[in-house]
Amino acid sequence: MYDVIIIGAGVTGAAVARELSRYDIKVCVLEKGEDVCVGTSKANSAIVHAGFDAAEGSLMAKMNVRGNELMTDLCRDLDIPFKRNGSMVVCIHEEEKEGLQVLYERGIKNGVKELYILNREECLEKEPNLSDKVVAALYAPTGGIICPFMLNIAMAENACENGVEFKFDTEVTGLSRKGEGWVVSTKKGDFDTKYVVNAAGLYSDVFHNMVSEKKIHITPRRGDYCLLDKEVGDLVSCTIFPQPTKLGKGVLVSPTIHGNLIVGPTAVDIEDKEGTNTTAAGIDDLIAKANDHVKNLPMRKVITSFAGLRAHEDAHEFVLGEPEDAPGFIDCAGIESPGLTSCPAIGEYVGGLLKEKMSLKEKENFKKTRKGILDPTSLSVEERNELIKKDPSYGKIICRCESVSEGEILDAIRRPLGARSLDGVKRRTRAGMGRCQAGFCSPRVMEILNRELGIPYEELTKSGGNSKLIVGRTKEVEA
Length: 479
Prior knowledge:
By secondary structure, the chain is α+β, with helices and mostly antiparallel strands. It has helices at residues 11-20, 59-78, 97-110, 120-126, 148-161, 204-211, 280-290, 339-358, 381-390, 406-414, 422-429, 442-453, and strands at residues 2-7, 27-30, 47-48, 82-83, 87-91, 116-119, 136-140, 144-146, 165-167, 172-178, 181-186, 189-198, 218-228, 239-242, 252-255, 261-264, 268-269, 302-313, 319-321, 329-333, 397-399, 404-405. Strands 1, 2, 9, 10, 11, 12, 19 and 20 form an eight-stranded mixed beta sheet that branches. Strands 13, 15, 16, 17 and 18 form a five-stranded antiparallel beta sheet that branches. Strands 6-7-5-14 form a four-stranded mixed beta sheet. β11 (181-186) and β12 (189-198) form a beta hairpin. The radius of gyration is 23 Å and the shape is globular.
């Protein structure tokens, strides 16, 4: 019997797991994928929003602003990169300047600090590559950029180190009452628990609707992105937004925490909760929209395109808390943008809710810090040479584009909740994220996974499930 079962190991589930790991209870995370961060959390803008966009008084606004406040300390404790590069909402039509004032006033009411409205000259002084049509912008210094993979993985690792169990490839199929608790049915058997936390992303409506008469509906909202080479990563320094529409914050242009440039997303409502395919029309649309606000976009420098799905709830609001007719079931549903920013606050909120309901006591030995994978490129030449003397694997480069060493990949595999697939290694080390998009390093990463984990080459996958990379061996001779 578990005290709490969390459905989903994305940023929301991981944040709740880390918060609950403070307490002396038995917690388990059930994830249908082969790793953490395999759903919505793996494909987004990687933006920490300031909080001026969400409606005043909404849960979105409250969680966004609080999550933004918590992010600096969280990233320091978990040893992950985070930068407050600031964000700008750019107006290119004189008659629409009043919209910036509306956003400004909303942001002030939401509690966002240090908001400013910049005139045309101030905009171009800060960002010379803005469109020549710019007339004004809303500037938020508290906006930031982060690595969503590292955030998700770090929170999950820290929760694991503090005693939370993680069960992967364990798809939840049903929920039923058992006394005052719940039976969570999965493809790998049943689990008993006192409380369930629904952090299932695009499928959070499915689980909510299993237990509550008050139904909710999640629409998968697809967003296409283009990622550009680091060679052009300094085209802008802030995150550049257009003025928002009812479909979202629009196509942004932003540096990434690792030095690339990202453009996107589009916003297309679809039915398929697994529909992450890009389309030519979607990419063309995002390029046209991005060029409205930033000039000279070097789209010939695109190294990859991808699509992510947002869990859009019909009321465009986070659904947090316990339904009246389903005691012991805690929703974290409809967590779309600004969900990445909000996750620390959602973890705090749900942790506080369960602390009160269960009269939880904090552990004396809770470990709030976690050490990330060492990046040898951050060391001085002397320090790096000394490291290689102690461990020669750090001197063997596996991914040339991102300068990832064998030592980093070994660490990614051996640490808590270690990588078991190519994408698992990629999200932890960036091996395969560079200009050649894993063309060079994939066979070498496969060799390391095979050697370290004993997984036969024919069973190695790109991202778990049926994504096997090898279908047979060449030059086999039948007996």
